[in-house]
Amino acid sequence: MVKAAYEKKNYLIDMDGVLVHGRAPIPGADQFIQRLRTRGVNYLVLTNNPLYTPGDLAHRLNLAGLEIPAERIFTSSMATAQFLLAQKPGATAFVIGESGLTSVLHSSGFVITDVDPDYVILGETHSYNLEHITRAIRLVAAGAHFFATNPDPSGPGDGGLVPACGAMAALIEKATGVSPFFVGKPNPLMMRMALNYLDIHSEDTIMVGDRMDTDIIGGVQAGLGTILVLTGVTKREDVSRFPYQPSLIVESVAEIEP
Prior knowledge:
- The protein is an alpha/beta fold.
- The protein has two domains: 4-48 and 185-255, Rossmann fold; 77-182, Rossmann fold (3-Layer(aba) Sandwich).
- The chain has eight helices and 15 strands.
- It has helices at 29-38, 54-63, 76-87, 99-107, 130-141, 165-176, 188-198, 212-221, and strands at 10-13, 20-21, 24-25, 43-47, 73-75, 92-96, 111-112, 119-122, 145-148, 154-157, 160-163, 181-182, 205-209, 225-229, 248-250.
- β13, α8 (212-221) and β14 (225-229) form a beta-alpha-beta unit.
- α3 packs across α7 and α5 (130-141) packs across α6 (165-176).
- The chain is globular, with a radius of gyration of 18 Å.
C-alpha cells in the first residue's frame, strides 16, 4: 500500500481507466473508495465525460459495485457551465450534446437556441449529426464564441474507438479557423473548480489519473500532487517521454492507502 506522504490528503479521482473500464470495475477500486469513506477522506470523481449527469454516472458506478453518490461527481459539463456563468450570466448558446450538458446549462440559466447565440458549446453525443455540426460551423464563422467541454479526441465504444469531443472540435476549427476553448482536463481551470467545489486547497490534494496528457499535467499545473495508475491509457514505459512527471506511479488504485 502507498502510505506516508499521502495520508490525510484530499483526492480528485479520474473515472474511466482509474475506477472502471466501461461498465466493469477496476479490481480493488471498491475497496479504495471504501477506505476513503471509512477514514473520512474528502474526494471527488473528476471526469471529462460530458454525456451524463452526475446522477447517471453515480448509477453507472453503483452497477459496477462502486458506491459513489452523485454529489461526489464533477463533470466537464458542470465545469463548462460554471465558467460560462461567471463570464456572461443568462447568455444564449447553440449546444451539441446530451443531457449531461444541456441539463446543467438549463439549470444555470442559459437559453439554448440556434438563432444568433452568444456561444457555440460542443460536448459529445451518442451520434453526431452533420446538420448540427454544419450549423455550429456557420454560427462560429458568424462570430459566436466557441467552447468545448473536453479535448479528448476519442473514447471507448462498443467494438472499438469512437470519435469524441476533441475530434469534432478539430473539424469545426478546421472549417472556421477558430480554435475552441476547452474547459475540461488538462485545463487546470477544471481542477481549480473541483477544489472550490469541495472547498479544499491544492497543497492538500492529490490527483489520481491514468493519462499523463490530461490528468497528470492538469494536476501538475494546478499545484496538486499526482498519482498515475497503470490501469488505463498511459503505460509505464511511456512516462519517461514526458517533461513533467507524476509524484508517484502505482499499478492501480488498489495500492493507494489514503
